[in-house]
């Protein structure tokens, strides 16, 4: 499992804090192993749905830089 997160301006959250919260709320196998934080909102189409291909592209680009 993985999570891509966009925080609200001024908010902070660490990977360990997120995983601890998820572990309390979800089954163990659903807790994200990989977490990415982004500064910009995810792209959406005209009906408000996330553009998953664009998000995947961002994640791939992020993984290549690290």
Overview of this protein structure:
The protein has two helices and two strands; from the N terminus they run βαβα. With 66 residues, the chain is of the alpha+beta class. It has a single domain, classed as GMP Synthetase, Chain A, domain 3 (2-Layer Sandwich), CATH 3.30.300. Strand 1 (2-6), helix 1 and strand 2 (34-38) form a beta-alpha-beta unit. The mean pLDDT is 92.
What attributes does this structure have?
globular, 38% helix, two-stranded parallel sheet, alpha+beta, 66 residues
The gist of it:
The protein has 66 residues and is α+β, with helices and mostly antiparallel strands. It has one domain (2-65): GMP Synthetase, Chain A, domain 3 (2-Layer Sandwich), CATH 3.30.300.
CATH class: Alpha Beta
CATH architecture: 2-Layer Sandwich
**CATH topology name:** GMP Synthetase, Chain A, domain 3
* Helix share bin: 25-40%
Distance from N terminus to C terminus (CA atoms, Å) equals: 19 Å
Low-confidence blocks of residues: none
Give the structural class.
alpha+beta
Instruction: Kindly provide the radius of gyration, computed on alpha-carbon positions and rounded to a whole number of angstroms.
Output: 13 Å
Summarize the SSE layout with pairings.
Blueprint: E1 2-6, H1 15-25, E2 34-38, H2 52-65
């Amino acid at each position: 499992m993985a999570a891509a997160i966009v925080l609200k301006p001024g908010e902070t959250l660490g990977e360990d804090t997120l995983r601890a919260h998820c572990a309390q709320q979800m089954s163990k196998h659903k807790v994200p192993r990989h977490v990415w934080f982004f500064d910009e909102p995810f792209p959406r189409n005209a009906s408000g749905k996330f553009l998953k291909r664009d998000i995947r592209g961002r994640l791939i680009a992020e993984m290549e830089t690290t």
